[in-house]
């Protein structure tokens, strides 16, 4: 009888691991599909307007071509943070256009992506592709990158978009690594925005957090 009981025991840890892999695969599929959407289905005039706003936010001269790093940040800001002339974000438009054909996991993940904004973190530790981060209230978060490995090392202050994917936290897109000489200035301004209330702070970081791109520290500099 004892043997029969054990035959029906469920390995919950294994089940959770398998479900997490499914969530990650769905998130990767969504991530890829989002950028296909802005490349092939988004209005060209809207993208021109967005790039003009991005240049102004980041202090990039009109005549200068964006670097590949800046272009990558522009595409993520465009998808997740930019507000179109009709008052929607491209991610909102994507969900409206694709929702009927999206699997439940994709809809759930897309909804969580909508809540992301660039936020400050200190990299406490890096091991095997996983980052241990401290937020500005010293809360610890374990995150993994969605897609390409993140260019961040122990001690770095970064601005990053983090979302829940399944049971884990994942970093979505590139980070802005704030240079040492700019850390105090950036954090002072961010903390001032917090004094305006949590809602105002979230809106500021979501719509304008990318402006700190000019404070980015390159490994090659």
What secondary-structure arrangement, pairings included, does this model have?
Blueprint: H1 2-7, H2 12-40, H3 44-58, H4 68-80, H5 90-98, H6 104-113, E1 119-127, E2 130-135, E3 140-146, E4 157-160, E5 162-165, E6 168-172, E7 176-178, H7 183-194, H8 198-208
Parallel strand pairs: 3-6
Antiparallel strand pairs: 1-2, 1-4, 2-3, 4-7, 5-6
Helix pairs in contact: 2-6
Helicity level = 40-55%
Q: Could you describe the largest sheet, including whether it forms a barrel?
A: 7 strands, mixed
Give the distance, in angstroms, between the N- and C-terminal Cα atoms.
69 Å
Q: What is the structural class?
A: alpha+beta
What is the number of E strands?
7
Mean pLDDT: 89
Strand percentage lies at 15-25%
Please mark out the parts with pLDDT under 50 across 5 or more consecutive residues, or reply none.
none
Shape: globular
Number of discrete domains: 2
Strand order of the largest sheet: 5-6-3-2-1-4-7
In angstroms, what is the radius of gyration?
A: 20 Å
Put simply, the count of helices is 8
| Secondary-structure element string | HHHHHHEEEEEEEHH
